[in-house]
Amino acid sequence: MERFDAVIIGGGPAGATAAILLASAGWSVAVVEQKAFPRRKVCGEYLSTTNWPLLTRLGIAEPFLELAGPPVTETAIFAGQRQYRSGLPSVGGHFGRALSREKLDLLLIERAAECGAQVFQPARCMRLTTQEDGFLATIESQKESFELAASVAISAHGSWEIGRLPTQRHERQPRPSDWLAFKAHFTNTNLPIGLMPLLSFADGYGGMVHCDDDRASLSCCIRRHRLETLPREHGDSAGDAVLQHILKTCPILRPVLDHAELDDSWLAAGAIQPGIRSRCQNGIFTIGNAAGEAHPVVAEGISMAMQSAWLLAERLKNHRDEVSEHSVMQRIDASYSAGWRRAFAPRIYAALAIAQWASRPNLVRAAHPLLATLPGLISWGARLSGKSCMVMTDRSTLLKDCYQA
Description:
Distance between the termini: 41 Å
Radius of gyration: 21 Å
Strand content: 25-35%
Largest sheet: 8 strands, mixed
Number of strands: 20
Helix content: 25-40%
Oligomer: single chain
Shape: globular
């Protein structure tokens, strides 16, 4: 049995970010990820401009720029036959960009390994129990079952994962109101370079953005009860049916996809779990969607995942020899929880309101005169959802240092 300073359950953007930061600070870190990378994942794939200081801090800013799609300088609302466009804010001269999860996740986990983290992949944490000196994790891989001991446990497994860990959700009966998520890549689209539109359609919402390899990513969420009523031609997937529904209720999108070709099959996942959860359960810290999740309508999921890992790691990293002290962990928990709420609760509430509005075309149509007269409201909504709000750690000078670098 090996012992580490920290065990991180999940090697996605949140888990890998925490691993890089803690390993760079001298911690011994184990990352347990159940999937082999690269792997596709339902995700909007956009990282807002607020992540540039963090990408620099992680040492991946240059490779990210080389791989990612073009700068996203505008957003828009596509509703019915109309579109309303407005500029997106830049921070430090940078705009947000999109990178497929196949490449982003691999870039981050390889960087974590370079920094000294030990990556167990593919492997699954089956049990996480509390001990006097920390935690004991029972791990199953394709070849063996083994145990890891750690002083600190961090859950970064997302919110969709059903399992037996204290921080994982339990299985429940499907509900008609559930939000189900879909994603696919397209080539040869007519989406203007630099534009990331919000798609409004009946009982759902979506978005498009240019990512890597000259592809555009289309991701969306739809209510379960609406999905179950959609007609399907013989051989059509659920994703195909959803796309036809979007094109029917949001026809402004048709010219964008006139000559587009599906680059890969549709992915589906859900039900998504938007909301705020505990940042520390049974002594286990949570980051990413395990801590809280915004509706994907605001395209802040990856940003919140990585930035929440940053908030926690900055509070942990200088207390490696003190994490066994209950009072120290209590202070870290209180500080992290307060910082997390300041940074992300407004995004989650804003995303909920925007999702409810965008999925009701009648409400969107009622706002047409206002949007036509004051397109700046769209930029204001982008800022409200976190597109220009810098996350401040306990060491606020870190942001300035990153920009100077």
